[in-house]
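Section 5.1 Outputs to date
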Amino acid sequence: FSEDFIWSDAAPAGINDQQILGLSYNGKCVVMLDPAKATVNYWDLSMTYNEQFCAIARHTEGTYIVYPAEFYYVLAEDGSLWQFTLYTSDNGKTYNLTHTRLGYTGLELMGVSNITDGQTASMIYDEESGYLVLAARISDGTTHVYMIQPESQLVTELGDFGSGIWPVTTLYQYDRVSQLSIRSDMTDCEIFAGDGLQFSAVVLPDS
């Protein structure tokens, strides 16, 4: 397993999110890693495209033709935005990958795919807003945060983390707890009018 296969950015993949889809080999390969099986499969895009792909985010799951599929937004260093489609026709035994250029964002992410030079980027898809959120540290030593509208490729800079603060690039997303349960042990006690009572409880998420 070569260090060239270490990815610049990655996203969940496969049935039940048991695998990882990453961009590696200076943005020329898409790598699919199965941690449980310790196996790696990859697609070499260097013979097809000149772009160096550097940031990836999964946005939906569905079907491609008639096959189960996962859909990803992918940014290249030249600012082009792509859709990658990962699908399987044999219930996850093997996977295929298709790719379509959507347009250009105007961002310059040169050097991000080469993970050893200090330029970094990470991207997630926000389902509620339908926007991509990108954190990128390029040439000025500052990590900037952007929102990208995928259909129009319109970019808005939200701000930055301040100069010299590094590394703060990696983004992740989690499901916020919406319901809680309170569990307490049964206790016998005797109180009188005007007295107070204090008890302890454990708060647990319902899911």
